[in-house]
Amino acid sequence: MTDLIPSLALGGDAPRAFDAGAIHLAENPGFGIASVALRRNCPPPTPFGVPLPGTAEFTEAEHGLALWTAQNQWMLLAPGRAEEDFAGAVKVEAPGTSVTEQTDAWAVIEIRSSDGEGPITALLEKLVDLDPATLGPGRVVRTGLAHQSVYVLRRNAAELTVLGMRSAGASLWNALETAAAQLAAVRYS
Amino acid sequence: MSRLDGGLIDRSRTLSFTFDGRRYVGHPGDTLASALLANGVRLMGRSFKYHRPRGVLTAGSEEPSALVELRSGARREPNTKATVTELYDGLDAMSQNRWPSLKFDALGVNDFVSPLFAAGFYYKTFMWPKAFWEKLYEPAIRRAAGLGRLSMEPDPDSYDKGFLHCDLLVIGAGAAGLVAALTAARTGKRVILADEDFRLGGRLLSESHTLGDAPATDWLAGREAELSSLPNLRIMRRTTVFGAYDHGIYGAVERVGDHAPDASNGVRQTLWRITARRTIMATGATERHIPFANNDRPGIMLAGALRAYANRWAACPAGRVAIFTNNDDGHRTASDLAAKGVEIAGVIDTRADAQPLGDYPVFPGAVVTGSKGRLGLNSVEITQEGRTQTLTCGALGVSGGWNPNLQLASHHRGRPVWSEEKLAFLPGEGGPRGLVPAGAANGEGSTGGALSSGARAAQAVLADLGVDAAMPELPEAEDTPIKQSAFWYVPGTARAWVDFQNDVTVKDIALAHQENMRPVEHLKRWTTLGMATDQGKTSNVTALAIMAELTGRSIPETGTTIFRPPYTPVSLGVLGGGDTGAEFRPLRLTPTHEWAKARGAPFTEVGPWMRAQYFPRPGETHWRDSVDREVLATRAGVGICDVTTLGKVDVQGADALEFVNRLYCNGFKTLKVGMVRYGLMLREDGIAMDDGTCARLAEDHLVVTTTTSQAGPVYRHMEFARQCLWPDLDVQLISTTDAWAQLSVAGPHARRLLERVVDGVDISNDACPFMSCRELTVCGGLRARLFRISFSGELAYELAVPARYGGALMDRLVTLGEDLGATPYGTEALSVLRIEKGHAAGNELNGQTTAQMLGMGRMVSNKKDSIGAVLSRREGLCADRRTLVGLQAMDAGAKVTAGAHLLSDGAEERTEMDEGWISSACHSPHLGVGIGLGFLEDGARRMGEVITAANPLEGQSTRLRVVSPHFIDPDGGRVRD
């Protein structure tokens, strides 16, 4: 076990969190992340028992979730495994595929509403140019957000997960925090 | 005159506001204009050119005259229409474009020298003496131009943006829009109803009609209640849809906080991008005036506006009012005002058969031929059957017919079509796909017509979407056909204003005609008609009709103008959507960013990346002190630099090696596992695209690195090659730039330092030779990748670890290497090191250079095909004789400047003598002089020659010696040690 102390994607001493009105934002540094791409004539695996989902979908199981990223490509996210060689573990689970370590490629931000779907829809309207009606629970989309490319996962009606480039994580957080704060200011002023 | 009875204002509350420092009161529901009128204020501004006293002309966003400055300090906003400024407590408004006061404006002298400012004056006057134009006339005219003043301070307000999607966007919440929205929303389709007003109802709010057997406001309240109860309908008040764009996208601005007493509380305005499958344009119509002599005095207004102020805002600018009209609608104003207790001095109707609607005097077959009143209307002169008489009145309502607000339908170059029956332009073909006009915007002049038009439009667009919408039950409403005559202006010798905002008169149009500026486009530019912030909403059609009359042609023959976004002015702040200052764009931070920040490093932008430039130490007073120290420390001991920003692309698959072999122009087939090779990528056209390294970690696993700036383009290029050029290859790509922190460890002590962190791995020269790579662990088990590559020309490695450990690893290396002179270095030293070594970088790979120019012509393999190889051999490229050379200043203190042109020594500094340019330059602490890299004609054959670098922009001329680009260790012994 290394004695080096890791830093967080958003640069703080502790994972960032922010509350504005009904919206709660939280940095989640715990996911072990790896990409899986099928090679020629390779059948889709079921790593850790997580079935690989279809286009623009993600599946969630006990050991994590898998999200579709492109044709024959997925990203696996396993909570609490950021400090492991998660890609190495995936290689074992998905033999014959191309696996690439992605744990530190992403800043992961969880967004939760304490007031149901409405605040999430309002926030989505401020952030991404996509129809919230097409981003139902179980859907994932790669889209532009505040001039950067992100994945947006609709975990359920009142929860989103956003994956943005780790290096631009602080800018992503700022965009989310600003949007949430402005929404709250307008709604509750 | 004080307030009238009735109106849609909340008299239970009083709002206090100021205009030009004087305090007034109004009520919720008022606009600034209505409140000022209710307080007896008619004079609200000065005109653009002639500084003529001006009042309010309209009651909407088409207002050309009543422009004011709102708020103060950094929040001051010029040219704001008083007619759409919602009153709030504490509103602070100032008149503009006057000095020293609104009532006495010294620049009013312009009015007396008006012949100097006739149409096209700036092409004709102020021409002599010639030298005066640039130094005196133009600066003076520019200073005098414009209306309001900018604060010249950063805008302190917050703005944001958002994205909405709907099946149907209804623009305008008047009679047609409301019914359309209701018809569609009842089917369950997602509908957005947007209106620029703060209250739904449009023109219904300004009329005295009943709908069914109840006042229009009762009907509106019922519809509003139903609309609010529908979850699939979104009502957007205070929202101006300002532009129609491609693919059913509309731009809209919602004024979120403008009406709030404290504009800093939250967002001021939101920029919405609305994607609509279909759109109904129910934007209403704008009344036009009839130009007559001196028709611009405060108190002279559009008749419909006069009616709106009376009915909706219970305000009237005077107790005695006259109406000048060519149609029945003018009589409605007289009738409504009379019902409110306003004395009607008379209705001057151009039609000989005019009939009154009530008990008031009518002057049939008459026109207004003049007006009096210095700061406000006192009387009008009317002419009837050749006889003139004076009519005392404090206000005159003018009605010349109505123009449909068809601007949005014209944003895709849809040309309006003239209707002789309605005497108006109607929306024509070629507008935005999916946009359907309805109501007054489509020429429906009656309330009944607008209601049924809205319903029919909704049914039509829904049918287009495959939905059968039921016709709603419509109330019985006013449906009287409006009778009007084609009367466009009152001829005369005095000035009669057509475009109030740009001070364009009938005379100006006549002058344009006389000077052959007759096409509409020429007329517009010669006179500036319609080119102000109101885009000629109250003037364009009238001007066209006047020009038509002057040319003896019909209006459609004369033409029309089309419109561009925005429909009404949009602030630049909201167009930015809140992306200003530090948040203007995303910034990418390196894994060692916080570490570098703690050490006082200044940062430089490299694309979106922020990179440490250098690490100053106490006593260093100039950046060169720090950079020279870092360079020398690296060459003497060991330097450490964060190079995470270089692009990293993971390439896997059975055909991974074949893939990169086709991608790079040099051969990769022989690259062994555990080895790295330098590679040069060409574009399809044979120009050098990017360089970097490719490491083979396993038989089927490679890592390609790119330059920082080309990381994105190269990855896209690779994906294009994978998906489109060679889909048969078994290759998978993914970027890992962010996943790994990568540190360059360079210098003669680099290996000794790394031996202190690697976990029991032999990294000796034999075990880990130059251009090798391996996966290992460091610092007690942290997975890492080690690449023995050098950008500095020294013994060097690049060590990659998961990004979260980048900062800690940097700190560890600097600490462990203290006795070895371990020195962190930034981008400046990185650049000096690579220039000294003669490595090409972004300055050399600038999209205009070839492998041959870079001295790598022989790298383009003839034994295989690769992207760009064939075109790199074309004659045009091969003939370029400029090659990369080193350049060394002859004098120690001489400055070498990147971008300078290279000339033979003693040659005249002319373009024809140009022999190349300097691409990169620095001071070399190693050599103690300025050096550079550059591209020089026949460079390889001119070693030792003295040439001149000319920098005419700064008057510099420097003598340089042509040398090898490898200023240090030309044999490469150090990198192999």
UniProtKB/TrEMBL annotation, chain A:
<protein>
    <submittedName>
        <fullName>Sarcosine oxidase subunit gamma</fullName>
    </submittedName>
</protein>
<dbReference type="InterPro" id="IPR027266">
    <property type="entry name" value="TrmE/GcvT-like"/>
</dbReference>
UniProtKB/TrEMBL annotation, chain B:
<feature type="domain" description="Aminomethyltransferase C-terminal">
    <location>
        <begin position="882"/>
        <end position="969"/>
    </location>
</feature>
<dbReference type="Pfam" id="PF12831">
    <property type="entry name" value="FAD_oxidored"/>
</dbReference>
<protein>
    <submittedName>
        <fullName>N-methylglutamate dehydrogenase subunit C</fullName>
    </submittedName>
</protein>
<feature type="domain" description="SoxA A3">
    <location>
        <begin position="494"/>
        <end position="578"/>
    </location>
</feature>
<dbReference type="GO" id="GO:0046653">
    <property type="term" value="P:tetrahydrofolate metabolic process"/>
</dbReference>
<dbReference type="InterPro" id="IPR029043">
    <property type="entry name" value="GcvT/YgfZ_C"/>
</dbReference>
<keyword id="KW-0560">Oxidoreductase</keyword>
<dbReference type="InterPro" id="IPR013977">
    <property type="entry name" value="GcvT_C"/>
</dbReference>
<dbReference type="InterPro" id="IPR027266">
    <property type="entry name" value="TrmE/GcvT-like"/>
</dbReference>
<dbReference type="InterPro" id="IPR041117">
    <property type="entry name" value="SoxA_A3"/>
</dbReference>
<dbReference type="Pfam" id="PF08669">
    <property type="entry name" value="GCV_T_C"/>
</dbReference>
<dbReference type="InterPro" id="IPR042204">
    <property type="entry name" value="2Fe-2S-bd_N"/>
</dbReference>
<dbReference type="InterPro" id="IPR028896">
    <property type="entry name" value="GcvT/YgfZ/DmdA"/>
</dbReference>
<dbReference type="GO" id="GO:0008115">
    <property type="term" value="F:sarcosine oxidase activity"/>
</dbReference>
<dbReference type="InterPro" id="IPR006222">
    <property type="entry name" value="GCVT_N"/>
</dbReference>
<dbReference type="Pfam" id="PF01571">
    <property type="entry name" value="GCV_T"/>
</dbReference>
<dbReference type="InterPro" id="IPR036188">
    <property type="entry name" value="FAD/NAD-bd_sf"/>
</dbReference>
<dbReference type="InterPro" id="IPR006277">
    <property type="entry name" value="Sarcosine_oxidase_asu"/>
</dbReference>
<dbReference type="Pfam" id="PF13510">
    <property type="entry name" value="Fer2_4"/>
</dbReference>
<feature type="domain" description="GCVT N-terminal">
    <location>
        <begin position="593"/>
        <end position="864"/>
    </location>
</feature>
<comment type="similarity">
    <text>Belongs to the GcvT family.</text>
</comment>
<dbReference type="Pfam" id="PF17806">
    <property type="entry name" value="SO_alpha_A3"/>
</dbReference>
